[in-house]
Amino acid sequence: MYAEVRRVLRRHRLHTVCEEALCPNIGECWGGGTATIMILGDICTRGCRFCAVKSGNPMGLLDRSEPENVAAAVNELNLNYVVLTSVCRDDLPDGGASIYADTVRAIKHLNKDLLVEVLIPDFNGRTEDIKKVVDSHPDVIAHNVETIRRLTPSVRDRRASYDQSLKVLRTVKHLDKTIFTKSSIMVGLGETCQEVLDTMRDLRAADVDFITVGQYLRPTPSHLPVAEYVPPTVFDFYRQEALKLGFKYAACGPLVRSSYRAGEFYIKAVLGR
Questions:
Q1: Do 247 and 209 contact (CB within 8 A), yes or no?
Q2: What is the pLDDT of residues 134-146, one digit of tens each?
Q3: Which DSSP category does 177 fall into?
Q4: Cα separations in angstroms, 81 against 54, 138, 140, 251, 258
């Protein structure tokens, strides 16, 4: 199945965060017939210090056929759950929100029963752009805070902020309470256990439904070093505490990533399958 996923994605000229971000779970996820498709190209206008995706200026370039190509690939792979994410596109007037919306609609047009999760950038906090994605009716909208408040300036690009990420998540719920929201935290960057719990509380205060907590792994020597390898018992503790706080599900573990086995967790948590 790994080879089939790779073949279909290549034929439709699609990128995946699995490859671009050097995800450690690519073999497991692709082998199971799932992939997180990265739209809007492979050049990010931001430079977060944890991320292996290349940075630069795409100069406004877009593949207008991308929504249809993504929908065709998803349909060909016969998926029942797809995750869409993207690079940040600060060079575009709407940050790429319209391409997100067109892609969701194209997928749903071919298969109205297919579940679609989108992992969106912050769109610089613009409500009108977040609304474009919400109005396309994906089943889950994710946006990652990535780390605790104290470490945000040293981990994320200067244009990202902890409070702006919380605002994005609150805005989604304000616009449509029926859409599930999700966020992700990396640990092992120098945070304390209490700071992780405080971040969870902030996310619940924003009415976030799903959370993932995973170990930060340094993708290259030029990225932030790992401060600590968090033991499995601590991840178990985080999961228990997240559920106590009211998250509908919490996936916590060393290799957990924001889109890791997303369909399985969503279906189990929400549809009871």
A1: yes
A2: 999 999 999 999 9
A3: T
A4: 27, 11, 11, 17, 14
Reduce the DSSP state of residue 203 to 3 states and report it: helix
Q: What does the block give as tokens for 39?
A: 């739209």
Secondary structure E strands in the chain:
15-16, 36-39, 81-86, 115-119, 140-142, 180-187, 210-215, 249-253
Q: Kindly write down the DSSP assignment for every residue of 115-133, as one continuous string.
A: EEEEE---GGG-HHHHHHH
- Strand order through the sheet with 36-39: 15-16, 36-39, 81-86, 115-119, 140-142, 180-187, 210-215, 249-253
Beta bridge partners of 37: 16, 84
Full set of structural domains in the chain with CATH? 2-271 (3.20.20.70)
pTM, whole model, 2 decimals?
Answer: 0.90
Q: Which two tokens stand for residue 154?
A: 């040293």
| Distance, CA of 107 to CA of 14 (rounded, Å) | 14
Among 97, 29, 39, 59, CA closest to 261: 29
pLDDT, tens digit (0-9, with 9 covering 90-100), for 44-78 = 999 999 998 889 999 999 999 999 999 998 888 87
Beta bridge partners of 81: 115
Instruction: Identify any residues that bridge with 215 across adjacent strands, giving them in sequence order.
Output: 187
Direct distance between the N- and C-terminal alpha carbons of the chain, in angstroms, rounded to an integer? 23
